[in-house]
Specification:
This is 2-C-methyl-D-erythritol 4-phosphate cytidylyltransferase. The protein is an alpha/beta fold and 189 residues long. It contains six helices and ten strands, in the order E-E-E-H-E-H-E-H-E-E-E-E-H-H-E-H.
Length: 189
């Protein structure tokens, strides 16, 4: 008998799907549904209580609960992975950030010239979610950015951060072509 590594029950937490500053792409369709809707359903299935970005930061602080930020551009992130990240944040009292390995070749640029290849084993792509433990929520006055890569860097500069490798279907889309590729990758068999 195998155990599902994502079969966990998260503590009470609040969450939102971040669609701000992402243009119209969150409203593109994947499997016949808007990306933002798919991401919202995953949050609900993970047992996270939704809030919208109009909620005051003081209200989030007063809740004393972790805050889960789920990127609308990572619409197929499994609910179980979101729940696992909330549990990891609670257990480690750290910000938890979902990441994917870098698969592209990355080159260093020096004085306008392409230089050596950077070892991609040391690189990750920020995906979703970003989970803020209650003590981090309390220490912030709000989000310093809605861009997940910028947000991850800002949080890492101030707080303990743990990265967790997200499953392949959690990849972030950046174009309609990416949406079609993700749709093909996540088509039920």
């Amino acid at each position: 008998m195998t155990t599902d590594p994502y079969d966990v029950t998260p503590p009470p937490s609040l969450g939102t799907v971040v669609e701000t500053e992402r243009g119209s792409l969150p409203f593109a369709l994947i499997h016949g549904e808007a990306l933002v809707a798919c991401a919202s359903w995953a949050l609900g299935e993970a047992g996270v209580t939704p809030f919208d970005l109009g909620t005051t930061w003081a209200g989030l602080v007063d809740s004393g609960e972790p805050v889960v930020l789920h990127d609308a551009l990572c619409p197929m992130t499994p609910a179980a992975f979101l729940a696992e990240c909330v549990v990891a944040s609670e257990e480690r009292s750290a910000v938890v950030i979902g990441v994917r390995p870098v698969t592209d070749t990355v080159k260093q640029v020096e004085d306008g010239y392409v230089g050596s290849t950077i070892d991609r084993d040391a690189l990750v792509v920020v995906t979703s979610p970003i989970v803020l433990p209650p003590e981090v929520v309390e220490a912030l006055d709000g989000l310093p950015s809605y861009d997940f890569a910028e947000l991850a860097a800002a949080l890492a500069a101030r707080f303990p951060v743990v990265t967790v490798e997200a499953p392949p279907e959690s990849r972030r889309v950046g174009s309609l072509d990416d949406v079609r590729l993700l749709e093909a990758q996540t088509r039920p068999v």
